[in-house]
Amino acid sequence: MVAYKVAGMNEGTGSTGTADEETDDVFRALADPSRRRLLDSLNARNGQRLRELCAGLDMTRQSVSKHLAILEAANLVTTRRQGREKLHYLNPEPVNAIAERWISQYHRERVRALADLKTALEQPMSSTEFVYTSYIATTPEKLWQALTDPAFTSRYWGATFTSDWTAGSSISWHMFGVTIASPEQVILEAEPYRRLSYTWHDFTPEFAERVGFTEEFLATVAAEPRSKVTFELEPAGPLVKLTVVHDGFPPGSAVLASVSQGWPAILSNLKTLLETGETLPSGDDDPKAAGQGAEAAARAAANA
Questions:
Q1: What angle do the packed helices 215-223 and 287-303 form, to 10 degrees?
Q2: Which of 100, 150, 191, 269 would bridge 7 by S-S if both were Cys, CB 3.0 to 4.6 A apart?
Q3: With b meaning 16 or more CB within 10 Å and e meaning fewer, what string describes 95-111?
Q4: At what angle do helices 61-73 and 19-31 cross, to 10 degrees?
Q5: More confident site: 181 or 10
Q6: Measured distance CA(2)–CA(157) in Å, rounded
Q7: What is the mean pLDDT of residues 8-14?
């Protein structure tokens, strides 16, 4: 679950322009009230089809499509195909980048509205999946290596994996000094440099003790059905578009609430490592602090 790696945020959008140009794209996209309503709608219920978004807004299908195209260009909305239909998701990456940039330079009071937006976009959605898109200045080969090679995953994630990375093979997790192995931890899909999917790890008593889970929270997450995570790699000019889909959660999932807090930090750290050779400055790497933060996120989502 450990989308727990603690790290700062410093992400860019999918544009190949300068950081200032990318920031301008995001602010222009957010300036229109109709586009903000679309984001509000996705924040309330992620993964909507075009007709569902149109139904909740007093706009024509053509107008909604145009607004969505602008939001996609700014990387505020990402999409996935489900059969013939396209599903739309909020993507917090560009807001993470702007919030971190401005909050790091100015008084928090001067960017409170932006920070509030960042928080709103990062909070767990009323959905059964987590979707996140990042554009990384790397190659599909290097990104695949970063997703599978312990030399990389240990740096940006704080976890390593043992597997031969072929479909049907087992995968063991090693994190916080605990090894988690199970016959149900398997590689579901493995197309090198294109797509990787595997089931999530068990929640064992040893892991729970190491990260400071309460007995009640351990019982809750262990009772949930096993989720899976999928990494989709797609060349995008000089960049690689990485889409992470973590799904298979029941409604009101405590695991989803927890990983939704952790994935943005992990993926931001991955991007920074591949683009600069260094990871982001980390916060508190105490496993118990990370685990307790995940548990607190799940409680907050349950009470929302």
A1: 70
A2: 269
A3: bbbbbbbebeeeeeeeb
A4: 150
A5: 181
A6: 8
A7: 39
Transcribe the chain into DSSP letters.
--TT---------S-SS-HHHHHHHHHHHHHSHHHHHHHHHHHHS-SB-HHHHHHTSSS-HHHHHHHHHHHHHTTSEEEEEETTEEEEEE--HHHHHHHHHHHTTS-GGGGHHHHHHHHHHHSPPSSSEEEEEEEESS-HHHHHHHHH-HHHHHHHTSEEEE---STT-B-EEEETTEEE--TT-BEEEEETTTEEEEEPPP--HHHHHHHT--HHHHHHHHHSPP-EEEEEEEEETTEEEEEEEEE-PPTT-HHHHHHHHHHHHHHHHHHHHHHHSSPPPP----HHHHHHHHHHHHHHHHH-
Find out whether 7 and 282 touch, Cβ atoms under 8 Å: yes
Please, what is the average pLDDT of the chain? 83
Tokens for 249?
């959660």
* pLDDT > 50? residue 14: no
List the one residue out of 31, 12, 258 whose CA is nearest residue 123: 258
Tokens of 85: 């239909």
Q: Which residue has the higher pLDDT, 287 or 100?
A: 287
Considering the entire predicted model, what is its pTM? 0.71
Tokens standing for residue 191 = 């197309």
Separation of CA 208 from chain center? 22
| Highest averaged pLDDT of the listed ranges 9-13, 37-41, 44-48, 203-207 | 203-207
Is-contact 235 16, C-beta < 8 A?
A: no
Question: Domain 19-303's class?
Answer: alpha beta
Of the chain, the end-to-end C-alpha distance in Å amounts to 22
| 299, pLDDT greater than 90 | no
